[in-house]
Amino acid sequence: MSDWVDVLAVEELEPGDVTPVQHGRLKLAIYDARDGLYATAALCTHAGAPLCDGYFDGHVIECPLHQGGFDIRDGRALFAPVTRALKTYPVKVEDGRILVDVA
What we know:
It is built from no helices and eleven strands. The radius of gyration is 13 Å and the shape is globular. A hairpin with a 2-residue loop joins β5 and β6 (60-62). With 103 residues, the protein is mainly β.
């Protein structure tokens, strides 16, 4: 079952970077990668640091606190100290708006 929610206008994105958004109590990170948009939970699974403050390159987001890394495409933990995957969400664009499936 899907639950698509409108979170942001495309023109509000940080081009080539990470944009924080909040939908109710859910904090998300929207990534403007070269091959499209991705969405993950906004907080690191290791110590809860805000990933939107981290270094983003290609498909990897690095946590600003301890430099653990995640693949934004599937949430995989890539390098220490993170060991737990990051929650990912499907993304689509309709009429200039970014929608995320939060189901």
